Amino acid sequence: MSSITGKTKVCGIIGDPVEHSMSPAMHNAAFRALGLDYAYLPFRVCREELQNAVAGLRALNVVGLNVTIPHKVAVMSFLDKLDPLAERIGAVNTIVNDDGVLTGYNTDAPGFLQTMRSKNIEPEGKNIVILGAGGASKGISFILAGAGASLVILNRTRSRAEELAAQVSQIYQRQVEVVALNKKNMARALDGADILVNTTSVGMVPGIEQTPVPAGLLKPRLVVFDIVYNPLETRLLREAKAAGARTIDGLDMLVGQGALAFEKWTGQKAPLAVMKQAAVKALKNEG
Ligand SMILES: NC(=O)c1ccc[n+]([C@@H]2O[C@H](COP(=O)([O-])OP(=O)(O)OC[C@H]3O[C@@H](n4cnc5c(N)ncnc54)[C@H](OP(=O)(O)O)[C@@H]3O)[C@@H](O)[C@H]2O)c1
Questions:
Q1: Which of 199, 228, 253 to mutate to test the pocket of ligand 1 (most atoms within 8 A of CB)?
Q2: Is 126 a catalytic residue?
Q3: pTM > 0.85
Q4: Which domains does the chain show, CATH number per domain?
Q5: Of 28, 132, 213, 215, which residue is the least packed, with the fewest Cβ within 10 Å?
Q6: Cis ω for the linkage preceding 110 (within 30 of 0)
């Protein structure tokens, strides 16, 4: 996008707050790189205005929207159609406006899977330990179980992990193990694991000196994926690298979900490297 014209197509993100989002930088860089006449804007929308904001999408012919906290669940009831995966996960982060018909998708979980596969890591048949059972864990657990992985879930609030495991087992017909979050259980789970995914917010700013896993449990043959992206290198990733493990940072997942949304809105393949570079720069500016 060199400049805004009368033909410029508008995309954006709704959330509250939305000021810290890296998506505007990421998408506008991608539009520029491909010479697309699109612009991506942040819209701060409070809960009370969510329904009006969605109606405004149709009225203003906004072509696509990302949805972030706190609207990912509530927005579903204002859309015309839901992609089956978004419906199953129970959260929408991407809306496509097709001539006034609004369809909700979840690209967070597929973005996670695509990131793994882009690094030649195939979850099928792998033993994967998932830390956390919150919103992000739900999509990730569903998509990994759907891809044929065996899961062990550990969460501070055990009942939440049990609820999630029951859903995964019911939908994907796979047994999911749940163990209480303590060092002994973690050691046992990691002993037989191929991949560790941290979906908890432990290690995120401002608590950057915290880690969800004691360093001594990290092994060279493990792939460690931390979905926290601020900081880019969490203590968990730093210690995993030092232990010789392969690491994947949370920004890759953020770029992955953005890339899938970009492709739905533009029909073009997303320039992943451009998007990651813009996200890294935005994150640095964020401090
Ligand atoms: N890279 C990406 O694209 C991406 C996408 C989505 C989210 N994220 C990041 O993922 C993290 C989680 O997001 P979310 O939406 O899933 O949040 P959420 O629904 O609030 O879940 C938070 C999870 O972290 C656990 N947790 C929080 N503080 C803890 C502590 N002190 N000790 C142990 N466990 C703790 C919670 O356990 P309890 O159930 O016991 O409370 C829960 O499992 C955030 O840092 C977010 O920024 C990244």
A1: 199
A2: no
A3: yes
A4: 9-106+252-286 (3.40.50.10860), 110-248 (3.40.50.720)
A5: 215
A6: no
Tell me: the pLDDT tens digits for 223-262? 999 999 999 999 999 999 999 999 999 999 999 999 999 9
Three-state DSSP at 276 gives: helix
pLDDT tens-digit series, residues 263-276: 999 999 999 999 99
Which residues are near ligand 1 (CB < 6 Å)? 108, 132-137, 155-157, 160, 199-202, 204, 227-229, 250, 253-254, 257
Give the span between the Cα atoms of 148 and 23, in whole angstroms. Answer: 31
Is the distance from CB of 174 to CB of 150 less than 8 angstroms?
yes
Q: In 13-41, which positions are buried (b, 16+ CB within 10 angstroms) versus exposed (e)?
A: bbbbebeebbbbbbbbbbbebbebebbbe
CA-137 nearest atom, ligand 1: 16
Task: Assess contact for 235 and 209: CB atoms under 8 A.
Answer: yes
Tokens 């880690």, residue located: 211
Q: Report strand pairing: 94-98 vs 101-105.
A: antiparallel
